[in-house]
Amino acid sequence: MKEPAETRRILVVDDEEEYRVLATTFLERSGYTCASASDADEALRKLDERPFHLVVSDIRMKGKDGLRLMAEARGTHPHLDFIIMTGYTEDYTYSDIIKAGATDFIHKPFDMHQLLAKLQRIEREKSTLARLQEAYETLSWEAEVNRSFAELSRALISARPFEDISSLVLEHAKALTGSPLGYVSHVDRETGHLTVSTMAAGTWELCRAEDKDAAFRDFHGLGARVLENGKSLRINDFQRELPSGRLPAGHIPIHRFLSAVATVEDRMVGQVSLANSSRDYSEKDLVVIERLADVFAVAVQRRQMEDSLRKSHGETEQLLASIPSLLIELSEEDRVVRWNPAARRVLGKSLEEVFGLPLEEVWMPVDWKRVRAGIAAARSTGKSQRLDDVRVLRSDGKEGFLSLSISCVQDHSAGKTGLILLGSDVTERKILEGQLAQAQKLESIGQLAAGIAHEINTPTQYVGDNVRFLQDAFKDLERLLDKYEELRASVRDGPPTPAVISAVEEAVEQTDLDYLKTEIPKAIEQSLEGIRRVSKIVRAMREFSHPGLNEKTALDINRAIESTLTVTRNEWKYVAEVVTDFDPNLPLVPVLPGEFNQVILNMIINAAHAIGAVVGDGSGAKGTITLRTRKRDDSVEISIGDTGTGIPEEIRSKIFDPFFTTKEVGKGTGQGLAISHSVIVEKHGGKISFESQVGKGTTFFICLPTQQDLQSERRHEKEHSFCG
User: Fold this and answer.
1) Residue 335, CA distances (Å) to 237, 269, 315, 318, 331 in order
2) What residues contact 25, with CB distance under 8 A and at least 6 apart?
3) Residue 586's CB: how many other CB atoms inside 10 A?
4) Beta strands 54-58 and 9-13, pairing class
5) I need a surface site. Which of 137, 281, 344, 362 has the fewest CB within 10 A?
6) Alpha-carbon dihedral of residues 563, 569, 575, 581, nearest 10 degrees?
7) Please, what is the angle between helix 557-567 and helix 593-615, to 10°?
């Protein structure tokens, strides 16, 4: 997607005014923001005054030449692109100019479209490099997560001491989230007190702890809130996200806080808490910490089991039996040596039936080739392998899905390497995701299909009427042309006969040329207008229904809303007038386009229904739907207002709840606002709120972080401290 024109700035440098004016005029018409300079010194001053992305410079000028300008400019603007242009090909070769550091080279005189093509190529290359860098960072982060969990899995399997595992959990939690402060605590089974297992260096001093073995008997603050609610907590802005707008009284000042509860069978056994990352904690951070809390929960449970079964055998088997995920351990020869109850539950075979047998003899997943390749990769690289959505045949004979992790386990005493296959049954989640997506899609299609067909049918109908008129008019003109041909043939042989002239005059009178000259242009213009209307609707549908992306992409919010208004026109045109007030300088916003479009569609349809409940069938005065966009500091605000019925006070707290609806049966599933809330808040890190007056209408406000806000997450870390 193109950047806004104001961010694609080009400086044209040439001592020939004609070239400067020609180049800047053409480039500005092509969507760029341009400035010009007549020599190198003026160009260097302008580069210092404001940023530019690219310089188009003549090579031979008075004073410093283009290559000298490029060298000096790169000293303070190392990422600046240069296109060098010259008519002196005998003095400068393409190779010399490129070796000097130019991005590209163009001969004078040149076609302006050639220059535009070079600019567009440079933009594409920079965009591709940016996407590759982003993909590399994501893969690197995922690899780091996999390494962390592989190490923790090995620690669990090798029965390392509980204190070591606690330290490992905190170490990896800090590294994966960039947090300098944090602690891991567990609930003492005998006393019920929350006891610190391990804490980051410096945190004890900041929290004024006198005894590292002390239990938090009187526990206050954010950590206590997590324990009381039994839910994870992620806070990046205390003033906005805490009900009181500030930290609890007496709490150590911190900037950001992230905490997850470790539970076993719905029983809280511990907590992993972090603070003061140099960037806002993301949804990915929360997921990782929750997974680490699950690992820590296993460690806590193992310790509890070891305490209670210290004098008996089978501690490891008891620990693995409590893991809710399928776990299979393979020997160096790929024979089964461990098979936990979850594996028996999912695959329908007991440890006694499979022990010592090759894996392929006791379990053959539908995606066996993927599993075999993952096992081979884990053995050859020594690195953990993750396989998502592995299709398996469950014990009930039906196909299911596992999320599978394959990790190496080194037995140093025996000098052998085994494997651990850890899998979570995600079948129900996959089914629910598919059902929800299909239901939402079918609901949208059902709402829009008839209306769009009607919108297309109207212009198509009068295009057809006009084409039939043109067909009849052509027949009349064809008859007239035949008579003119007879007249021309008659004149060729001499003066035309009265009979021929009479026939021509009669044809002219029957054709009514004055009428046709008036009506044919109108028919053509009406037909073209109809085609334009159909094209607009089809284009809007194509943009609205663009296949969903798994990653966010920068989107023109104003254009997306315009497209959604077009495809929903039949929903609102009978009951409302639409007023748009879009900020023309709105920056591109990183979103999931398909899901964002679905949110706007839900809001517009809800507004139309609310107005319809007031104006009835639309025979009287229409209501108004008002859509505005504004830049608000580090976010973009979208408001959708209606003059409908308003939302009663008693149900306002429920409108974002799944399946809650005030519509009659058949008018909606009650999922629209719940899904909108999930998309905006959970998937985009934004906010959604509303204002409403009964009898006057409702306005919904959607706030989304901008690209600049996402970049600001990388600001340097500020040192703060926290206590639970």
Assistant:
1) 52, 35, 22, 21, 5
2) none
3) 19
4) parallel
5) 137
6) 20
7) 50
- Looking at per-residue pLDDT, the higher value among 30 and 137 belongs to 30
Q: Give the separation between CA 405 and CA 303, rounded to whole angstroms.
A: 24
Cα gap 406→421, rounded to integer Å: 5
3-state secondary structure 233-298: EEECCHHHHCCCCCCCCCCCCCCCEEEEEEEECCEEEEEEEEECCCCCCCHHHHHHHHHHHHHHHH
Q: Which of left, alpha, beta for 626 (phi over 0: left; psi -120 to 50: alpha)?
A: beta
Phi/psi of residue 455, nearest 5 degrees = -60, -40
Residue 102, CA atoms < 13 Å, CB-side half-sphere:
25
Assign 665 a pLDDT band (cuts: 50, 70, 90). Answer: very low
Give the residue carrying structure tokens 């044809």.
507
Query: pLDDT tens digits, residue range 403-449?
Result: 888 888 876 555 567 888 888 777 777 777 656 655 565 555 556 65
pLDDT for the residue numbered 34: 92
Length of the chain: 724
Backbone angles phi, psi at 178, to 5 degrees: 65, 40
Q: List C-alpha distances in Å: 430 to 396, 399, 433.
A: 17, 12, 5
Which of 261, 405, 214 has the alpha carbon at shortest distance from 327? 405
Amino acid, res. 253 = P
DSSP state, 679?
Answer: I
Residue with tokens 């939402």: 440
- Express as a percent the part of the chain with pLDDT over 90: 8
Sign of the CA dihedral 299, 305, 308, 311? negative
The pTM for the full model equals 0.36
More confident residue, 376 or 347: 376
Alpha carbons within 13 angstroms on the beta-carbon side of residue 348 total 9
Burial tier of 687 (Cβ tally within 10 Å: 0-12, 13-18, 19+): middle
Which residues are CB-contacts of 641 (< 8 A; sequence separation ≥ 6)?
607, 624, 625, 626, 627, 628, 697, 698, 699, 700
The tally of CA atoms less than 13 A away on the side-chain side of residue 598 is: 27
Q: Specify whether the CB–CB gap between 196 and 183 falls below 8 A.
A: yes
Which candidate, 265, 429, 425, 404, places its Cα nearest to that of 348? 425
Q: Report yes or no: 32 and 10 within 8 Å, Cβ to Cβ.
A: yes
Q: What pLDDT does 450 receive?
A: 55
Kindly report, residue by residue over 48-83, the tens digit of the pLDDT: 998 898 999 888 888 888 889 898 998 888 888 999
Give the C-alpha distances (Å, rounded to integers) separating 570 from 158, 323, 565, 605, 609: 65, 54, 9, 10, 12
